[in-house]
Write a structure and sequence with these properties.
There is one protein chain. The chain is mostly beta strands and 186 residues long. The protein contains one helix and ten strands. Strands 1, 2, 3, 4, 5, 6, 7, 8, 9 and 10 form a ten-stranded antiparallel sheet that branches. It is extended, with a radius of gyration of 33 Å.
Length: 186
């Protein structure tokens, strides 16, 4: 019993000393713990489903772009971010070019379109796969890049980039690093 009384008295003495030292002391100021608040940007958008754009340029080429879903950022109103994109380009005096990709970025003001991730292009018997395709109507240019593989019949070619002039149909194939070579398998 004496141990219990002694233990309880000791506990009260410690609490009393702490109370007098910290809580009665007028100079005592509690430490402020600084919290970092992470800034998050708020993204407001409008979502559209089953998108269809049909555009003709000054040269008579026709561009038909379809997407399963599109999203317009309230801050950038002339850009639509597309999902599951399919496009058909009908060049004047030529055959159609079909394009499919997982994602796209369509510029409403100039009709330029970027196709990205799992891009597949079919033109006559030619097939091109890549992960990035930039279609610029204003520049009359289609630019294929990122893991470009061209195939026709038994021929397979790998390169860093392929450029095609829509107007002249001229094609440039190249590697970004001049020390690397384009590979062609037959």
């Amino acid at each position: 019993m004496k141990k219990t009384i002694l233990g309880t008295s000791l506990l009260f003495l410690i609490i009393f000393l702490l109370f007098n030292k910290y809580l009665k002391n007028k100079d005592y100021k509690p430490k402020l713990v600084e919290k970092k608040i992470e800034e998050k940007s708020i993204f407001n958008s409008n979502i559209i489903t089953n998108i269809n754009y049909n555009v003709k340029d000054d040269n008579g080429n026709e561009y038909l772009i379809n997407a399963e879903k599109g999203e317009i950022d309230e801050n950038i109103k002339n850009i639509i971010f597309l999902k599951n994109v399919k496009a058909i380009i009908t060049l004047k005096n030529s055959n159609k070019i079909s394009i499919a990709s997982d994602f796209g970025k369509y510029n409403i003001s100039n009709n330029d379109t970027i196709f990205s991730k799992n891009v597949f292009v079919h033109y006559l018997e030619n097939k091109i796969t890549c992960n990035y395709l930039d279609l610029s109507i204003k520049k009359n240019l289609i630019m294929f890049s990122k893991d470009v593989i061209y195939s026709k019949d038994e021929v397979i070619m790998k390169a860093d980039a392929i450029e095609m002039n829509i107007k002249t149909k001229d094609i440039k194939v190249y590697m970004h690093n001049l020390k690397e070579k384009i590979t062609i398998n037959n």
